[in-house]
C-alpha cells in the first residue's frame, strides 16, 4: 500500500506513552500521524482500513536481534529478518555487531544502513561494536561509528571482561551521549557450563552456569557507571539477584537501564526437557523462581524493555548434543504472541506490556517512535490479542527455524503492520 493518506478506523487505541486506551481512529499522511482519537472516524480521499475493534498501537522496537549480513546470509538476511519482524509487529530492529566482518568500522555501518534501506521493510538500526573485532581489548572509534549511523555500542553476545576498557568506553561514550549495551555474563565463570546451575542440570548430567556469572559482571558495571556517569544498558538480565542490583542502581539515580529476553519471561529451565537444543540460550533459562522475579521486575519498572534476542542458527549448529549446540533462538515473529501470555495470565496490563516493547525502547534509544501522537512516525500495528493459533515453525519467515515455541499454543496475531506510513504487512485473514 502506498505512502499516502490512510485512515485506521474502528480501532481500540492503546498509547503506552500516555496509558491512554480508547476507541477511535488514526489518520496518517506522509509517514506521520496527522490525527488520533475517538473523533477520527472519517476522512475524504483517505484509504480506509477497518480495524474491526482490534488493538492499534505503536510498532514494537526490538533492541536485540542478530542478523547474518554481512558474512552469514544463510542464517538470516536483512530482507528475511524484516519480513519476520513485520509479521510479528516489530517496526524497528536494532541489529547486533556479531557479523563477519564485525560492525567496528564506519564503512561497514554505512553498508548496513544502506543495505537495510534497500532490502528491509522495517527500520533497521545497527549497533556498532564496542571494541575492535569484538575482542574486548581495544575500544572502537565511538565518535566515527556514531556519525556513520550506529545507534548504540555493544559487543553483542560477548562480554568486555577488562574493567579498564569498559571504564574508558563508558567515559568516552559520555562525550557523545552514546549508549553502551552490555551482555552481562562473565565467560570465566560460565566456563564449560551450558545451562542453569542447579538440580535440574545435575539430573541431566550437564555442566551448569551459576547466576553469579551474571551478577558479578553486572555489579562491576554498575560501579563503573557510578565512576564515569556513562549511559549503560544491561542487554538482558535473567535472575532475581540481577533485578535487585538494577533496582538499587536506579534508586541511586544512576543512568542504568536493562532488558529481559521474552524467553526468560515465558520459559524456565524445565522446558529444556529431554535436551531440547532450541532452548539452549545465553544467558541460560533459569529456575521458575527467577522467571517469576523477572515478571515482577518488569511490572514494577525495574526492567525497562523486552527483547526477542533473535538469534538464527542453522540446522547443523542446533542438531547436535546439547553441550555442543550453538546458543540462540529465533524470536522476531513470536515476540508479541509470547509476551501476551503475561496479559492473558493477569500479570501485566496490555498498555504496560506495550510500553516495555515500544515506548521505553524508543526513549532509551532516543527515537521519536513508540507513541500514538500527532507528529509521531506512523510506525503502527493492528493486532487481535485474543486470536489463538498453534505455531508451525515451517511457516516462520525467518530463514532459520530454531524457535523454542514450535507447536506451542499462542494467542495474539498481527493483522497489519505499517512503517513510516506504508503498510508493509497484512495478514491474509484481515
UniProtKB/TrEMBL annotation:
Pathway: Pyrimidine metabolism; UMP biosynthesis via de novo pathway; (S)-dihydroorotate from bicarbonate: step 3/3. GO terms for molecular function: dihydroorotase activity. Its EC number is 3.5.2.3. Binds 2 Zn(2+) ions per subunit. It is an enzyme of class 3 (hydrolase). Residues 53-240 form the Dihydroorotase catalytic domain. Belongs to the metallo-dependent hydrolases superfamily. DHOase family. Class I DHOase subfamily. PANTHER family: ALLANTOINASE (PTHR43668). Catalyzes the reversible cyclization of carbamoyl aspartate to dihydroorotate. This is Dihydroorotase. It comes from Microvirga terrae. The gene is pyrC.
